[in-house]
Write a structure and sequence with these properties.
The strands form four sheets. The chain has a two-stranded antiparallel ribbon with strand order 1-6. It has a two-stranded antiparallel sheet with strand order 2-5. It is elongated, with a radius of gyration of 22 Å. Helix 5 packs antiparallel against helix 6, helix 5 crosses helix 7 and helix 6 packs antiparallel against helix 8. It has a domain of about 140 residues. It is an alpha+beta fold. Helices cover about 40% and strands about 10% of the residues.
Length: about 280
């Protein structure tokens, strides 16, 4: 996962949402059934651009999936995860995943809030997350507008960098950093450990670890040219527009013990160091 800058809410957005939001509020107050008017699809392009055409959870490009506007906190039914299940080999189906219904109304007041929207791929949205929204507290029943909760699901528009909660191996396998509860809940909720996704991450993870090894060896021998080029290549892999850039940043934090801003500053420092690479002598003919 990667942190993105949420797109600016369009002018007139709240006015357009007001009627639909009021209809839901009145239905909830009256205890009658209702259906949401799906207005969020009209704003999908804002999030596609902000997220560089990538799913906010797994970072798969939208060219590989239809993509949809996901409600971070479920607008209707809320479920709890009982067993994470697994992805069937060579298929996108999920096997053994078990959930329990908690309530039928969910976070209905956030259905038309810009702050609750993000772009998600169909697999993360419909196949895995669905109506799940893990919190740190014991859920007693339906959530309430005035209630105080601590979400465990990491958000691509949150304040805490996912790199602080996720860790990756050279094979592209993912796990919770230091036993992070947020990391574990996010992996289980949106299926970030599914095999099809790991295969997509593998070559990028392999290259990232290789560049870090080359950078460390170059530093040890005083080869500032190679060190600088390696750092530049790592920065390129971690750009927001690149596939699985969030994983690259997680690996940099793990292996170099530097946050991404720190690594960007580190690369600038390398650019100011004198070169020490020996020039190879030309062979005489």
């Amino acid at each position: 996962m990667l942190l993105f800058k949420r797109p600016r809410q369009p002018r007139g957005f709240r006015a357009q949402m007001r009627s639909a939001e009021l209809a839901v509020r009145n239905a909830i107050a009256s205890g009658v059934s209702f259906e949401f008017t799906e207005l969020w699809g009209d704003y999908k392009r804002w999030f596609v651009k902000a997220q560089h055409d990538k799913c906010g959870f797994c970072e798969v490009f939208s060219l590989s999936h239809p993509g949809t506007v996901e409600h971070f906190a479920p607008k209707a039914k809320v479920q709890e995860l009982r067993a994470p299940g697994r992805e069937l080999k060579y298929l996108s189906n999920v096997e053994g995943r078990q959930t329990r219904d908690v309530c039928a109304t969910g976070y209905w007041w956030l259905a038309y809030r810009w702050s609750n929207w993000l772009l998600s791929c169909d697999r993360c949205n419909s196949g895995w997350k669905r109506c799940l929204f893990p919190i740190a507290e014991t859920r007693a029943g339906a959530p309430h507008e005035a209630g105080l909760e601590t979400p465990l699901l990491l958000s691509p528009y949150g304040k805490d960098a996912p790199a602080n909660h996720l860790v990756f191996s050279k094979l592209g396998q993912i796990g919770p950093r230091g036993g992070s509860a947020q990391g574990r809940a996010t992996i289980d909720t949106v299926g970030l450990d599914r095999e099809s996704l790991r295969r997509q991450r593998f070559h990028i993870a392999e290259r990232t670890f290789g560049l870090i090894d080359r950078l460390l060896r170059a530093q040890a021998t005083g080869d500032h040219v190679t060190a600088r080029f390696s750092a530049e290549d790592l920065l390129a892999l971690g750009r927001p527009s690149q596939a699985h850039a969030g994983m690259v940043r997680c690996i940099v934090l793990t292996e170099l013990r530097q946050s991404w801003p720190q690594f960007e500053s580190f690369k600038k420092q390398l650019a100011t160091k004198p070169t020490s690479r020996r020039r190879s002598k030309k062979k005489r003919i």
